[in-house]
Amino acid sequence: MSTVRIPNAVLPTGAPIPVFGFGTYKVTNGVYETVSSALALGYRHIDTAQMYGNEAEVGRAIADSGVRREELFITSKLDNGNHEPAAARASFEKTLADLRTDYVDLFLIHWPLPSLYGGDVALPWPVLEEFHAQGRARAIGLSNYTIEHIQRVLDVAEVAPHVLQ
Fold this sequence. Notes:
This protein is an alpha/beta fold. Helix content is 33%, strand content 16%. It has helices at residues 31-41, 55-64, 85-99, 125-133, 147-156; strands spanning 8-10, 16-18, 22-23, 45-47, 73-78, 106-109, 140-142, 163-164. Strand 5 (73-78), helix 3 and strand 6 (106-109) form a beta-alpha-beta unit. Helix 2 (55-64) runs parallel beside helix 3 (85-99). The longest helix has 15 residues, at 85-99. The two termini are 29 Å apart. The model has no long low-confidence stretch (mean pLDDT 96).
């Protein structure tokens, strides 16, 4: 194992987040080996997404790494086809199962999708708040949202987004 220490920033929740993370976007071949190598090199923040189609291999690499779950920061994101509340809940369960964990450190809505879901870019936000209240998403946030989209989420939010990626 590497002795390299990556510094942390602090989220609004008070939790640390490594300032450097290993992203798995477009990692489709050799996912297990690639994530295993990143963990061996000292990365402790692994960023994946339902859309990437690699959560199961990411989860296997994490499980086999020997790194304690408490030492890791795992981010995933809600896929575009799963913004309806029931679909968001089901897909989040699959994310947790694929990643082989009871919680993620950060769960994001991947895209606002203003041309879908009747233009309701905040539709899945209350469901993410549920995951946060349950402790299954330690922090929640948005990805690829504009200021206008963020405001629409804030209009319905009981918990403000912790992160904008």
